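Mods, move this if it's the wrong board.
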Amino acid sequence: EARARLVREAQVAARLRSPHVAVAYDLLEHEAGLFIAMEYVEGELLSARIARGPLSVPDSLDIAMQVADALDEAHGLGVIHRDIKSANLMITGRQLVKVLDFGLAKPTPSRDVHATQASLTMVGMVVGTLNYMPPEQLRAGQVDHRADLFALGVVLYEMLTGRLPFAGDSMVDVADRILNREPEAMGRYSYSVPAEVETIVRKALQKDPERRYGSADRLADDVERFLADQPVLARPDTIRYRAR
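Not the wrong board. Structure tokens:
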């Protein structure tokens, strides 16, 4: 099973040509072991940067735009990452974002209810990292590219506030928050987040995938509209908020 996953990761990564995806050069075998020769990306994981405190709004939006570009490339080829998180995003010294680890990627939406993964080791759970999972992935249901957009929304919230939108004392508590509760208002943790930016984040974090952005480039378009002082297309009156 592990061997098949490594082969799949190499095949998926080799199809991607975005400058924001770590390049896979070759799949090699040595003494009955398989390994992938990949681009060496020197830099800092986004999770480590966030650990020092929230990022500025401009830096957060720049990173989100670069991740959206990588996802647009992947989704255009029918590839879903399924594990977008701050620990899978590397920031180089030139502030270039590289998406790492396509080991959980799937060429097409599918049920994968028996796989195991380091973050979720219980049989019967979909692979991924719990805090970044959308409700439909958590339920082991049909997952499409909008699962990655939800995870990007989690990363955006995390960058801007220094906190995860769905956190708890146990896996059960986290799962309940993802399925049934809305994140706290971002202004509680950072007064510098503009209302339009929070609206973009909330749009990505909608529990119903039909209410999220339909594609990564639509999310990026709203970010560009905000940066150009134009109204974002996400409508705050159609998005549920948790009162402060």
